[in-house]
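Posted in: Protein Modeling Q&A

I'm a second-year student putting together a small comparison for a lab meeting, and my supervisor asked me to include a predicted structure for 23S rRNA (Adenine(2503)-C(2))-methyltransferase RlmN. I've never done this before, so apologies if this is the wrong subforum. The sequence is pasted below exactly as I got it from our records. If anyone can share the structure token output, I'd also love a short note on what stands out.
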Amino acid sequence: MKYLHRHTPDDIRSVPYGFTYKEMVEVIGESEARSLYSSLYKHSPKKEYLTMSLKTVYKDGNTEKYVFELLDGKCIEMVFIKRQDGGTVCVSTQVGCSVGCIFCESGRNGFVRNLTPSEIVQQVILLRRKVNRIVFMGMGEPLFNYSNFIKAIHILRDRNGLNFPTDGITVSTVGPVEQLKKLREEHLKIQLTISLHATTQATRNRIIPNMHRYDINDVVNEALSHAKRHNRKVVFAYLFLQGINDKPSDVRQLARWFRGKNVMLNLLEYNPTSNTQIKKPAKQEMTSFKQQLERAGLEVTMRISHGRNIKAACGQLANKYNEKNK
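Accepted answer (user: helix_wrangler)
Welcome! Here is the predicted structure, written out as tokens:
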């Protein structure tokens, strides 16, 4: 890799979870790299290699929320959902978030900083559970931390380490266009989910105010281009907000964009946050909207939320531990 020469043996040994096996070999040699990588990924984590620690765990049925404290005292939250054959881990990429979605707590106190590749990878390592799906749907916008997020994926999938399958990784993004274009050209067959939530620019600006500089049609077109380039179905997440994005005109526009395309619409239910202006919709209203979309020729699923009672569901991961450290 083009940046290998910037690293020293001390860099490798002090923050080893931030490097691929190839980088380690280039800097500290194959023998030491093989031994170190085995220590990192084939055995229980050693304290001297870690740059974060578990602060607390909340549990609700098959869902667990982990709060990790970083070296600078900042905290992040991560969610694990247990399945029959393993589990899904919902990973964070930033402390806080700059996007400002009205339905999400993560950006309530704004953006603090990006997570390093090491901090992203350690969330999976410190879980110490069988994981068969990694979703980048935690705190932060992954594509606004692009280089660290991509490097973390390369580390996680490194065959000398976890050897995690790329098609078991999902990234959820609001769709910054320049970064979507870069992601399309990556040789990574990950699952892409676009947080769309609207069919007009005005409505999207209301729901995701800090994405106003990105035209909604450009976001959709880049995502469809990604689906075509990688021959993979793209998921468009659509939070049902009664009276805001559920009009007949919304159904028609979604059909114009996605009918006959390699796309699935994921209809989301609002999970309560501190925004008291948003009300949880009635289930029958969501079901009716789903049926309208299906009649329009679209493939639609309704997301089942997990961990609502411990504020671990989509939109509920917060930054509250960091408020004391501002």
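A couple of things worth pointing out for your meeting: The radius of gyration is 20 Å. DSSP finds eleven helices and twelve strands in the chain.
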